[in-house]
Design goal:
With 257 residues, the protein is an alpha+beta fold. The chain has a domain of 140 residues: Jelly Rolls (Sandwich). It is 19% helix and 42% strand. Helix 1 runs antiparallel to helix 3.
Length: 257
């Protein structure tokens, strides 16, 4: 008959629990489809580090400030602030892509639309001005611009989560974790040599005033479940502890007693 001391029994129970977490995906590491992760949690300086470990650190230009965000801090853009990132293959896609982020728009200026993000001749999420809020068009350029419109109005001065996905056949838009638009669009996406932009997008300067938080760029069409998970946890939430590290740390503590 097998006998267990207290430490062994606790160890078996904890290991069983952690293996369950691993199989259910309760803790996750960076997956191969993640091209960039920006938490916007800095409190000074104009550099936003890329936590995906792919090295896509952003530099903010114009007037900006660090403010309280949806999860931790966020980056607030004035009417002349923007990000322009060099051309890189990680931000040019064929048939699969996703963008996800929290946004709080106070104003769209001086024109009635702003691209967040925009890559000239490839894709743009076009946030459009209304008297009491904004709505969004998700554009794909497959040789010509094709757009899918998400009609619900989101109010100015409020945090809302935005996501768009493309799988080579359909574009989908999600607001606050719920699908609000879907439409047929065939790939592949056109390729250009233009930078990846947040604000200051095209046509004589299209800006917004407001804040951005927790952005993920992927070369896969994220599922609604994945979008909701990232919306709730944010960058640092999904990177907090990988299953392997959690297992090793817990087992070390057990053996130490």
């Amino acid at each position: 008959m097998l006998k267990f001391n207290k430490t062994s029994l606790i160890g078996v129970l904890l290991l069983s629990y952690l293996l369950t977490l691993t199989s259910n995906g309760a803790a996750k590491e960076i997956d191969k489809n993640t091209m960039a992760l920006w938490a916007f949690d800095e409190s000074k300086g104009n550099i936003i580090p890329d936590l995906s470990e792919r090295g896509h650190n952003l530099e903010v230009e114009g007037k900006f400030k660090w403010v309280k965000g949806k999860l931790g801090n966020a980056l607030w853009f004035s009417e002349n602030a923007f990000v322009e990132y060099k051309t890189h293959p990680d931000f040019s896609f064929d048939n699969d892509m996703s963008f996800e982020f929290w946004i709080n728009i106070e104003e769209i200026t001086p024109q009635t639309v702003v691209g967040i993000p925009r890559k000239e001749s490839e894709y743009v999420s076009a946030f459009r001005q209304e008297p009491n809020g904004w709505w969004v068009d998700s554009y794909i350029n497959n040789g010509a611009w094709v757009n899918i419109t998400s009609k619900p109005i989101s109010k100015y001065g409020e945090w809302h989560h935005y996501a768009t996905t493309f799988d080579g056949k359909e574009v989908k838009v999600y607001i606050d974790g719920k699908q609000t638009a879907v439409g047929a669009v065939t790939g592949p996406i056109n390729k250009g040599g233009d930078p990846f932009r947040i604000s200051n997008s095209c046509c004589g300067g299209r800006f917004f005033v407001g804040a951005i938080d927790e952005m993920r760029v992927s070369n896969s069409p994220r599922t609604e479940e994945e979008i909701q998970e990232f919306m709730n946890l944010g960058v640092k939430g999904i990177l907090a502890v990988t299953p392997e590290k959690k297992l090793a740390q817990t087992w070390a503590k057990i053996k130490a007693h």
